[in-house]
From TrEMBL:
E.C. number(s) listed in UniProt: 2.7.4.1
Posttranslational mods: An intermediate of this reaction is the autophosphorylated ppk in which a phosphate is covalently linked to a histidine residue through a N-P bond.
Residues binding ATP, per UniProt: N71, Y495, R591, H619
Protein name: Polyphosphate kinase
One Pfam family named in its UniProt record: PP_kinase
Function: Catalyzes the reversible transfer of the terminal phosphate of ATP to form a long-chain polyphosphate (polyP).
Domain of life according to the entry: Bacteria
Gene Ontology CC terms: polyphosphate kinase complex
Top-level EC class: transferase
Organism of origin: Salinicola socius
Record-annotated active site: H462 (phosphohistidine intermediate)
Family named by the database record: Belongs to the polyphosphate kinase 1 (PPK1) family.
Binding-site positions, Mg(2+): R402, R432
Amino acid sequence: MNTAPLRVNRTRKGIHAKQTPSSHADLDDPALYFNRELSHLQFNIRVLEQSLDASHPLLDRLMFLLIVSSNLDEFFEIRVAGLKHQLASFHEETGADGMPPIRVLQEVSRIAHEQVERQYRILNDVLVPALEEQKIRFRRRAQWTPEQAAWVADYFEEEIAPVISPIGLDPSHPFPRLVNKSLNFIVELDGTDAFGREGGMAILPAPRSLPRLIRLPAALCEEGFTDYVFLSSMIHAHAHEVFPGMEVGGCYQFRLTRNADLSVDPEEVSDLASALRGELLARRYGSGVRLEVADNCPDSLIDFLLKQFELGEEDLYRVNGPVNLTRMMAVLGDVQRPDLRYRPFTPGLPKPLRGEVNLFSAILQGDILLHHPFQSFNPVEDLLRQAARDPDVMAIKQTLYRTGADSSIVGALVEAARGGKEVTVVIELRARFDEADNLVLASRLQEAGAIVIYGVMAYKTHAKMMHIVRREKGALRHYAHLGTGNYHAKTAKLYTDYSLMTTNEALCEDVHKVFQQLSGMGKPRKIHTLLHAPFTLHKALIEMIEREAKLAESGKKARLVIKCNALTEPRLIRALYRASQAGVICDLIIRGMCCLRPGIPGISDNIRVRSIIGRFLEHTRVYYFHNDGKHDVWCSSADAMERNMFHRVETCFPLLDKKVAQQVRKDLDTYLLDNCQSWELDTEGQYQLRNPGDAEPISAQETLLYAYASQA
């Protein structure tokens, strides 16, 4: 048994040498960069750490542990699959760190195996016992009472047996194609069946229509206890009934993760929606990239499965528990124990938006900035609803990336279109894992009479924009909403994001031009106030970083703060290195991947990198530059990544109202003061959780929650 400590397992991020480059070092030197994929895994380790943090409520600690599984699923489906494809196609690419794909895969396998083993130990040794102390139990077969076993038998007969489809393996029944991430069982059989076939092996796919976790009736549980049984346990217990007359020698769960990245060639596609529908079907059966099996599965069966899926030992993950931990999320919504969850709160509203408010009149009084989830997302929805019903509103334009199948935003757009308004919606069909929902949304809007555009084929439309044209006193006035996050009411309660509502003529005119560029054709339009990817954003960010460097070199105060989800783009990193060398104080708040190596004498010793992990997913993108006291503050839909700068349509908008800009600067200072949920990245690629010691504990998220939500 592995007895390694459960606490954070610090893992190097792919540094190639321990050398300390001088101030004259080549800034292209791979030793100055961390590997992107390994940095991604480091983020997952920080999330896993939250499951051991007793300052979080118990059920939320379980949530963090389960999020790790969800994150790893996508990591293998996309990132690992991409690396494997590079090797298979003999088209290897290396990032700024210079690590070849084969080496990255080796490190990924090593780190992922360590952390998955640790994840299951935390579940089994820490969280399950703690939940049992709170009278929430996951009952294994050996723990069932006779009454519970009888209920399970009835459930199997009535709910499972009618929909289960065993597949015996023989020459006329080859190994089946199994759906990506589906729960399956490999079964050893002995005996002779009705057709005279000798037993061997069978595959038993778990019915996808059934829940993976079933709550036992209260009458069958000890008083005060809530008991759950896994579907896998039920199938294990009654596998012999699926193969009558045969002896079941063993029944072992497994799960295959497949390549789930969609590939649409812009030169070969005439109808993106139709092409995506075909790709969505193919995604379920992509090439295998990871095999998870129960740790009691015999080696002979594992070897058989690996051969079937053309995987190696490094792709195998033996787990001590359910192979599909993400499905345990159902417990969070089922258990009614508010004492084991974060305390609920009512999001606040700024003064101009309190009470019954005409949002157009409120915005005319000045720009309004909302910081979600501390402040409500409702005004954004209300603005669109009021626009849909306002007889003076003539046109509405909107981008949708991830919105949700039951979105009130879409409902308002449908209402506006049916009401005769000019409604244009740019829907990004290729929003990963939301493609099917977005196809449905597109059809719904088209049926209502809206003009639906799928953006630009080679560039994902990731910008978050709304544009409203309203006739006021005989003239047309423009209103705009710009945000750092998606138009999604549910994630607005979980993700931190900024929303700006404005009638500033320059900003609204630029938003109008971006929409025209997306819907029409022509040369890039001159956009004066917004920064716009893939055209001006990257160049402008580098210029602003270099401006701070020149100020520092001239002896003036120079500082910048960048807060985003990821920092991987090499030219931006090199610009930050040069700024640090010039004496610019650079504070980087990077939630996830960071390829910049801080703290190198003469290179990056003026750069500090921290990651905030807490109750809410940090999602705001802010770029702040001191600019000799002029204080330029920008919010953006874009992270500091290659894809955002060059392969997506993004917007980065200045906060022109001084009060609004000051609010964001104050928020940034709060994040930089965090000493409870802030992880600092060191030169060797390790993240250290800041400790308040004898100082007053400061949680940025709790501080902002109190500051904004308490006003409600």
